[in-house]
Every structure is written in structure tokens, then in C-alpha cells.
Amino acid sequence: MRYIIIGAGAVGGTIGGRLAGAGHEVVLVARGAHHTALRAGGLRLTVPEGELTYRLPTVDGPGALGELRADDVLVLAVKTQDSEAALQAWAPVPVEGGGTAAERLPLVCAQNGVESQRLALRRFRHVYGVCVWLPSTYVEPGVVSAAGTPLTGVLHLGRYPHGTDETARLIAADLEKSKFEAPVVPDVTRWQYAKLLGNLGNALEAVAGPIDSDEARALYARVRAEGEAVLDAAGIPYTSVEEQQRVRGDKITLVPLPGTTRGGGSSWQSLTRGTGTIEADYLNGEIVLLGRTHGVPTPLNELLQHLANTFARERRAAGSMPLPELVSLAERAGG
User: Fold this and answer.
1) Burial zone of 131 (CB within 10 Å; 0-12 exposed, 13-18 middle, 19+ buried)
2) CB-based contacts of 261: which residues, under 8 Å, 6+ apart?
3) What is the C-alpha R_g of the chain?
4) Which residues contact 314 (CB under 8 A, 6 or more apart)?
């Protein structure tokens, strides 16, 4: 199979690089300065064993590839706010032997949140979800890093909305040859909703800095409690913290990488890069949406969604709001 990584940033670049390193055929899709750097110098992947360089075919969209192959796997790894444009671009692309990508090819959503696979299923017949446990960082154009060892990440994989099949097992087998653990599960959304609860802290971190004090941890606990109340009211199952810890164990240990600083998660990185967008609408905003649908108040998640979007729009520095100020806002919001 050939893997087309749509969005070769931190997560997509790491998955693509690790697959290429294990001998699999990979095409990277990127934009702007990252696309230029990847074409000029290859993908530089900094990992515990050193900096690895992969000179891979790199395009900025489907037009450069022409007709797709029948054995292609599309891996969607853009931020959720960019999913609709990517899906619209790739769905109608013709595939050798007839039909389109939307009709024939598997689309694997390796992203935070749960919205992209819903969007994908409107167009694509064969959609797969991934619960992404993959600590990685976009360092600069052409360079990504992943500090986990001995495994680079754990990627639960299954058909969306539920089930498994041979395609999922073949993809998982390739990932497991590429320094990932990739359990194939029939209930991938149960893992993704658990990951969503963890990702509710992304906006807190992006706005007020690392969650490394008692005050920050207490605020995050209240944000998460809102999320759990909403999922319970909606009847949405999610894996427990204990089950997640049993699966992860000590399979992923983060080690310092020379020349690379992991300042924070995906939302922190979006602010640091000054992209002007952030995925809070699909993390905290997912909880807000479900809360409104099921009559459960979510004032803290609504506050963080608003603040994260404001920081992104105004290109404010990541972590620049003093935590006491955020706590005060949370108290006034009714949290």
C-alpha cells in the first residue's frame, strides 16, 4: 500500500516518516513554507535515535499526483478546522480502474476530536478513525520531532463509526512495523472520546501555560468534569483513565531531544506558529455542543473555547494569560 499523508505536520510527518523508515511507500502533502522545505531538503524527523532524513515525494494537493492508485491509503492529519477543504479536494480524485477516492479508497482520520470522521463519512465510503497517542512537535518548516521511546506512539484504529475489517488490520500491521502499537478495535470512538477529555486541557495550556501547578490541575479537573458530565448525559461511552494507563504502560517514555523543545500540545503549537486558527471549536467546542444538545451547563469549556479562539485570532503569545486571571474568569463564568 502507498500512504498519502494529507497534512505532514507534527502527527502526519511523524507517521509518514516512521512508515517510510520501515520501507513503506509514502507521499507527503503539505503547504507553504513546509511544502517548500520538504521538497528542497526532505523530511527531517528528530527522534530518540537521532535526526533521520527522508526524501519523499511531496505535493501540495491531489493535482500533482494525477490518477490515484487502487492501493492508496489516504491519511488525513490536518487540524480539524482544515478538514473540510481537504476532504473536498481529495474526494473526487479519480482512481485507476474507475471510480473516485471517495468511492474506493480508505480514508484514515489521524486527528484530535471526533468531528473530522463525521465530515469524512458524508463523502467517503470507507472511513477509519484513529485515537492518536503520539507526542510530536512541528519544529520548523521541514522538521518535526517525536520524543517517545521505545514506541513512538499508540494508535488505536477501527472503522468509523464502528467495526473492524481486513483493511484496518493491514494498516495496523504496517504501523506496528514502524515503531507504533496499533490495536485494531471495534469501538474506536470509545477511545477517541476518552482522548477528547484529555484534550480539553489543550486550550487551558495554550492560554495560561503548562498544567503543572495545583491551581492549574484543579482548574483542568473542573473542565474535565464538565466533559464527563456531558458524555454521560449523552450516553457516549469512553475508556477510563485506568484502562488507558493499562494500555499505555511504559511503552512511551519521553526523552530530551537535542535542539528540540516541546513547549506544549497541538493548540500551544498553533499559537506559537501564529497560524491564526486553533482547534478549540472541535475540542472544548464539542463539549459545548453536546452540553447544549443535552441540557448540561458547560461554562468552563465555553470560556476556554472563546479565549483560545481570541488568542489565535489576535495572534497572542501562547501561555501569556496569568493563571490567576484565568481562574478569576472561570469563577465569574459560573464554573
Assistant:
1) buried
2) none
3) 19
4) none
Longest dimension (CA), the chain: 61
Q: With both helix axes pointing from N to C terminus, report the angle between 266-273 and 201-208 in degrees, rounded to the nearest 10.
A: 40
Partnered with residue 107 across adjacent β-strands are: 74, 127
pTM: 0.95
pLDDT digits (tens, 9 = 90+) for 224-243: 999 999 999 999 999 999 99
Rounded to 10 degrees, what is the CA torsion of 140, 143, 149, 152? Answer: 100
- pLDDT digits over 238-287, tens only? 999 999 999 888 999 999 998 776 667 889 889 988 889 999 999 999 99
* Cα 280 from Cα 299, distance rounded (Å): 14
Residue 250, Cβ neighbours under 10 Å: how many? 7
The phi and psi torsions of 12 (rounded to 5 degrees) equal: -65, -40
Long-range CB contact pairs, 28-34, < 8 A, 24+ = 28/56, 28/57, 28/58, 28/59, 29/4, 29/5, 29/58, 29/59, 29/60, 29/61, 30/58, 30/60, 31/60, 32/141, 33/141, 34/8, 34/9, 34/138, 34/141, 34/142
Report the alpha-carbon angle 138-14-49, nearest 5. Answer: 100
Q: Which among 130, 124, 115 is positioned nearest to 171, based on CA atoms?
A: 130
Asked if 273 and 302 count as a contact pair (C-beta separation under 8 A), the reply is no
Report the alpha-carbon distance of residue 78 to residue 168 in Å, rounded.
20
| Separation of alpha carbons 208 and 203, rounded Å | 8
26 grid coordinates: 509514502
| Residue recorded with cell 474506536 | 188
Q: What DSSP element (H or E) covers 241?
A: helix 241-248
In this prediction, residues 128-152 reach a mean pLDDT of 96
Q: Taking Cα atoms as reference points, which of 59, 151, 73 lies closest to residue 107? A: 73
